[in-house]
Amino acid sequence: MSDVRLNGWLASDIESCHSWVIGFREHDPVLADEIRQRLEGGPGFAVVTGVPVDALTPEDACALAPALVGPLGRPLPQGTRAEQYLGWLVRDEGVSRFGADGAYQRGVYTSKSADQLDIHNDAAMRPYGHEIDLIALLCVEPAWRGGETTLISTHTLVRLLRAEYPRQFERLCRPFAFERTHVVHPGQDPLLWAPVFDLAGGELRMHCNRQRVEMAPALTGEALTAEDVAALDALDEVMARPDVRFRYTLCRGDLLVVDDHKVLHARESFTDDSGDRGRCLVRVLLTRN
Question: What is the CATH number of domain 4-287?
């Protein structure tokens, strides 16, 4: 595989090199080191297979997931001040990111829906004021149909956009407004201003979530400009290319760990059967600090 730390990777690189797969070994002190190697010197993500979840309730899994990834950083609380969780259940709870008129709904946790989720990173809006470095998703139950995960290397996007869309890339390196009413506490600003690609300080930091950029004008009172839309369209065009999109369906017991600034992710919509167990993941957000 090429130097993924600088140049990123393509889907074919990941498909032909399975070094990102790690078998789970209970009470193994080097497991965290193996994950860290994939995050820091490899593709920016790892999948630990075979985590024993068959006998766990979702609540049990919410306790297990932060413990598994705790050696990689500090798990961050998610949710309101009244209800905070280190392990956040990602499952269909009957909500949708779209209203009856087809417009985006404000204040909705899209993680609690069965909707398709576009390419994004969880650090994009600094939820609850957190600076997120890593995310982890533990699969307790896969979907009956759908729910496939897509991963994209951010360094690949930088390389391609700089070469093919230099003017649009320059705009993506200047701040956009992000609507974030669903992930703020009372008194926190419902808007975040940040560039999609933040190259300041010599380390790439990402804020990628077009939906939340398109929702921001309702709060700012200022429509996106033609330059803004052209830059976002260029980013979408590159991200839609099949050769940059690695697709993976999480199986029961898979633990996906991602450097949230090196790898973006998306999810296909899904359908659960009529049984008691629908698609259920546990999400953990971490900071390295």
Answer: 3.60.130.10
